[in-house]
Amino acid sequence: PLRCISKFRTFVKHEAEKNKSQWKTMGPAKVAVPSPKDFLQKHSKEPKLAPKKKEQDGKKLPALSVPQRTYRPVIRIKKNFIIRNALAVIKGVPKKPRHFCVDSRQGDKYLLEPSGLVPKYIKKKDYGVTPKYVTQRNEEIKREEAEYEASVVEELKKRAMKHLSDEEKTSILQALKKNWEETNREFQCLPVLTDTRYKKMHKAELETKLKQLEHDIEALEKHKWIYIANE
Length: 231
Hints:
Helix content is 42%, strand content 5%. By secondary structure, it is mainly α. Among the domains are: 98-160, no CATH class; 162-228. Strand 1 (100-102) and strand 2 form a beta hairpin. Its main location: other.
């Protein structure tokens, strides 16, 4: 069969040949060349202010309240500085001499007050006085201890516990120490060789008894108040 041929074939071919090498260089082939007279001048791109307004309708513009830059005020001061300085010296308080400390033969000196050699802290009125916050803290601690002891006593009274007096505590301590001495003497008299079962049991029993006595003596000596529960 015959091939279909477009009727715009010649037109398309002509357009393709026409625009084939149009962008071969940088930019279009035909560009308007700038004139050498139109070069960039200095301050040409800065914004320009509007022209000053001249007198309109024969009336002058109101004068500005701000003085001009060239305005120089006239200052007329008549002061006798010599007399002023003399009066300031006469009425002024004389300077007190500053104390120095020289620490070498060449005369090297430094101020005495900031050196730390002057006992200015000892001469304070409140030197050696306990600060208020310390006394307040001690009072609070004492009050808390008293309240705690009162609460403990109240709690023990509720539980019906008996307070151990100092005489009873001393007598108990003496009895415990005496018992410990007797037990210790008995322990020292044991034979060196414990080859039988009875000797081993007897030695272990004495050691346990000594440990219990030492624990009781330490508990009585460590605590100030001793209470005994009523059985």
